[in-house]
Amino acid sequence: MKKILLSTVVLTAFSLSIILFEISCKKSADAATTTSTSITQQNKIIYTKNLPLSGSSGTYYCEIWVANYDGSNPQKISISLPSGLFVSYTTFVKLSPDQKTIFFNVDDTKHDTNGTGFYSSNIDGSNAKLIIANSGNGGTLEVAY
User: Fold this and answer.
1) Helix count (H) and strand count (E) of the chain?
2) Which residue among 56, 60, 103, 132 is least packed, with the fewest CB closer than 10 Å?
């Protein structure tokens, strides 16, 4: 009788350990959600205005602007570039997916391609920096992703 009772206890303990092992190894495919990488719709448009470059015949520069979808509240993005450089009038401004960075073309007044290329800056125009040098005329930005 003692042997039967002892074997029952051992088998029960073994069964419980297998069940615990299976539970601990259970695969779960729960999706992790993070709010830090989510993108919030801003309901803004980004656009350019082409204006004649002062003191230069036939040369234009570009200003980058943002506004609400309905065109209200237009605000110029003031980008500080080195002397002699300007946002190209042929530029196609692109916005990064996180809506914090803009990308655009830069030309120079001497047309010697020094400092020209694709630039990026924060959405407020700060921290402008050259990312691809000497993209040349006719280079366009297609997609920022």
Assistant:
1) 1, 8
2) 56
Q: How far is CA 77 from CA 7, 38, 58, 113, in A?
A: 81, 24, 24, 24
Residue 13, amino acid: A
* Domain range for 70: 44-133
Residue 15 belongs to some domain of the structure: no
Distance (Å, whole) CA 49 – CA 76: 10
Could you tell me if residue 75 is inside a domain? Answer: yes
What is the secondary structure of 46-110 as a DSSP string?
A: EEEEEEEPTT-TT-EEEEEEEEETTS-S-EEE-----TTEEEBTT---EE-TTSSEEEEEEEETT
Would residue 24 count as lying in a domain?
A: no
Does residue 26 lie in a domain region?
no
Burial track 14-45 (b if 16+ CB lie within 10 A, e otherwise): eeeeeeeeeeeeeeeeeeeeeeeeeeeeeeee
Number of domains in the chain: 1
pLDDT along the chain (145 residues), means of 10: 77 77 68 57 83 73 88 91 82 82 83 72 92 66 60
pTM listed for this prediction: 0.62
Q: Which residue has the tokens 């924060």?
A: 122
